[in-house]
């Protein structure tokens, strides 16, 4: 092959890659746009829930089923006391808080013992789902509805399974130990179960970034926006994920993820499927997909819902190092879930989940990140080789950066119209500014972190990188 022929072949290959990446990115953004349209329609046509907790309490206090709130904790000494106080203060007629200390290497257990006047007790499990040893159980002398379980380290899935085994209520709410749930969050999550005929198996809610907010006595006292751009960018991401993607997917019965930071489940269903898997770093995603699979294979009518009015606040990574580990883990967990349940993909037996939900995950988590990164490299190369019109490069920039900015701003408008959790115009401006800036650097770094997650998946790595915490009310 002559040099000229080799040059032509290389140029054509680069052009093919550039066009393929453009198609993939355009497909992802088209799906996101459709989700924004569906979410807008859902919000416009829904029956608005009660505005305050007093109304919810008066309506449901005598009818709500008991709930066990399970909070796995690992090295959470900075925020564990405030988090548990918030859980105990939730406005719910009958709820138990089960904190599972997952073999913390810091003073998490000692802080709990001192903070809540704990004494050792003998509490047996109804079901043993965890793979590690329970070292002891503790009861509070001051709070009769608080149980602390101390166990060997086995990661969050194992700790959540241990808590499920100790629960005795029909519903369980699994959260992160550093989560701050709004006081009426449990009532809002339990409300769909009270109107259900037995189909409903799980409910998810909106997760918001607590960085920049004032937390006092375990409760959210004042909303705010962080000064650091990294958590501010994450506010935009969370708005997009929860108020657009989750709302739309729940409406089309393709909801694949209930965040590990807050999710309410029927305990009997969790026991039937064996709880969370221990061999994945994306246990929350895998659990929901497995529920879909189990209920479909059992030919049981079921529903999984998302209630955007449930708001749970969590501490987001404050710097890029923490963000890198988190996003790589999320990416690896998504790929592990697809590997575990590949038989469902494009399989009509699993309905919309198999035909729409999982293929969408493939586009988003398998094809999307590499395609966009490759696009940033091959599009300029194709222009230099003279095989791609510069206008095509502008089109690629438009469907990646400008289109992404528009989707973020659309999600922000949706939040302001429906939930109004942004306290003032100044904070709204800061979030809008982040929506504009995130596509110029932050988005690209996220893609690199996701590629790292793909590498970890291909290497079958199992290392869990904990996200560094600064704790609530601590200056960044």
Question: What are the low-pLDDT stretches, counting only 5+ consecutive residues below 50?
Answer: none
Helix content: 40-55%
C-alpha-based Rg, rounded:
23 Å
The main sheet comes to:
10 strands, mixed
Structural class: alpha/beta
- Give the termini separation: 60 Å
Report the mean per-residue pLDDT as an integer. 89
What is the subunit arrangement here? single chain
Number of strands: 12
Q: Order of strands across the widest beta sheet?
A: 3-4-5-2-1-6-11-8-12-7
Helix tally equals 14
Q: Based on Cα principal axes, name the global outline.
A: globular
Order of helices and strands: HHEHEHEEEHEEHEEEHEHHEHHHHH
Share in β-strands: 15-25%
Give a quick summary of the entry.
This protein is α/β, with parallel strands linked by helices and 476 residues long.
Structure description:
The protein has helices at 3-45, 53-60, 80-88, 108-116, 155-166, 185-194, 229-251, 267-273, 283-297, 320-340, 351-384, 390-418, 425-437, 442-458; strands spanning 67-73, 95-102, 118-121, 134-140, 146-151, 171-175, 180-181, 200-209, 214-216, 219-222, 262-266, 303-314. The chain has 476 residues and is α/β, with parallel strands linked by helices. The strands form 2 sheets. Strands 3-4-5-2-1-6-11-8-12-7 form a 10-stranded mixed sheet, with helices on both faces. Strands 9-10 form a two-stranded antiparallel ribbon. It is globular. It is built from 14 helices and 12 strands.
């Amino acid at each position: 092959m002559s040099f000229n022929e080799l040059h032509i072949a290389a140029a054509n290959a680069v052009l093919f890659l550039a066009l393929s990446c453009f198609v993939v990115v355009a497909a992802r953004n088209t799906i996101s746009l459709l989700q924004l349209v569906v979410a807008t329609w859902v919000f416009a046509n829904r029956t608005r829930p009660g505005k305050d907790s007093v109304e919810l309490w008066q309506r449901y206090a005598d009818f709500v089923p008991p709930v066990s709130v399970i909070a796995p904790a690992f090295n959470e000494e900075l925020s564990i006391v405030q988090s548990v106080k918030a859980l105990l203060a939730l406005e719910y007629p009958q709820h138990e808080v089960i904190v599972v200390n997952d073999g913390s290497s810091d003073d998490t257990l000692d802080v709990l013992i001192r903070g809540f006047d704990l004494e050792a007790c003998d509490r047996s499990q109804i079901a043993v789902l965890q793979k590690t040893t329970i070292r002891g159980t503790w009861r509070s002398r001051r709070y009769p509805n608080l149980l602390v379980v101390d166990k060997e380290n086995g990661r969050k899935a194992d700790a959540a399974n241990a808590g499920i085994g100790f629960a005795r209520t029909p519903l369980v709410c699994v959260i992160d130990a550093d989560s701050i749930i709004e006081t009426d969050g449990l009532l809002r999550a339990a409300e769909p179960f009270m109107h259900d005929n037995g189909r409903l198996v799980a409910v998810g809610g909106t997760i918001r970034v607590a960085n920049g907010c004032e937390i006092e006595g375990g409760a959210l006292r004042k909303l705010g926006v962080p000064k650091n751009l990294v958590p501010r960018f994450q506010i935009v991401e969370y708005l997009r994920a929860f108020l657009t993607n989750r709302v739309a997917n729940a409406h089309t019965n393709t909801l694949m993820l209930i965040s590990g930071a807050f999710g309410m489940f029927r305990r009997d269903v969790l026991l039937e499927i064996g709880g969370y898997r221990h061999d994945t770093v994306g246990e929350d995603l895998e659990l929901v997909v497995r529920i879909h699979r189990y209920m479909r294979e059992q030919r049981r009518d079921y529903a999984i819902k998302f209630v955007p009015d449930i708001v749970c606040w969590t501490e987001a990574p404050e710097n890029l190092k923490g963000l890198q580990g988190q996003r790589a883990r999320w990416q690896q967990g998504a790929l592990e879930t697809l590997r575990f349940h590949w038989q469902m993909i494009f399989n009509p037996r699993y309905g919309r989940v198999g035909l729409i939900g999982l293929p969408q995950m493939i586009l988003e988590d398998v094809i999307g990140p590499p395609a966009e990164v490759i696009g940033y490299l091959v599009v300029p190369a194709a222009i230099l080789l003279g095989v791609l019109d510069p206008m095509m490069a502008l089109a690629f920039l438009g469907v990646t950066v400008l289109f992404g900015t528009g989707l973020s701003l659309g999600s922000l408008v949706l939040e302001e119209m429906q939930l109004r959790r942004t306290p003032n115009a100044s904070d709204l401006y800061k979030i809008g500014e982040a929506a504009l800036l995130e596509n110029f650097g932050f988005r690209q770094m996220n893609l690199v972190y996701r590629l790292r997650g793909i590498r970890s998946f291909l290497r079958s790595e199992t290392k869990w990188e904990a996200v560094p915490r600064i704790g609530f009310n601590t200056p960044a």
